Amino acid sequence: MLFWSDKHRKAFAVLEYGLMTRAPLTVVTGEVGAGKTTLIQALLRKADDDMRVGLISNARGDRGELLRWILNAFDIPAPADADYVRLFQIFQDFVLTEYAAGHLVVLIFDEAQNLGAETLEELRMLTNINSGTDELLQLVLLGQPELRDIITRPELRQFAQRVSATFHLGSFDEANSVAYIRHRLRHAGGTGDEIGDEAARRIHAESRGVPRMINKIADLSLVYAAAAGLAAVNVDLVDELIGDGLILIAAPEPGPRLVPAQETERKRDLS
């Protein structure tokens, strides 16, 4: 069911590039429901046998708790009363042991915007385990657009300097939304025509091209069509579904904040 839009191909290429070049830090951002987690799942299916991969979702807490999240991701036992120094030593020993065995340790954080600036800086410190020309530990961060805002803060400039590759996964344009709907219908056993092009374009407009929202609207449209005895979803049926309030869509992200000079110019234009 995975649909490879141009943006998804590029994002996946960035992830593969990060692993191939043993980049210490790779970052992919995107709106909620854009398909970041789907890409990671596809990447893990292609992971080499010489990689030890740990996946963490929605990690929170101070630096000691972060290390416990990490150890848990690799199924590494640690004493309940271990302090930060002991936890760090356990993880470092694990990384060095895996390196000696010819394995690369890859740590993936999903929803990394929840980590916050201090925790991201702590992650940067973990990359100090790497020595010389050999990269023993790779970090891959996936998050919502605010992750980029956090990383580009002045206090995280050292973190940003260690990011070898980054990509922002945007929403589908109309053509990709229509192709995406057809793709999923066909892979589900249909012809691809169960949702007409005009209806698909209406779904795109309502979903703003976000794959997760496209799925929801398209699925419920098919339910409505079946209930009405229709062979295909038309635009009137999509409008009926939306009018019935079955779909909750958040307001779009606010635009960039104007700096004072821009605000002055805008007021001058309005006067």
TrEMBL record:
Gene Ontology molecular-function annotations: ATP hydrolysis activity
Span of domain AAA+ ATPase: 22-191
Protein name: AAA family ATPase
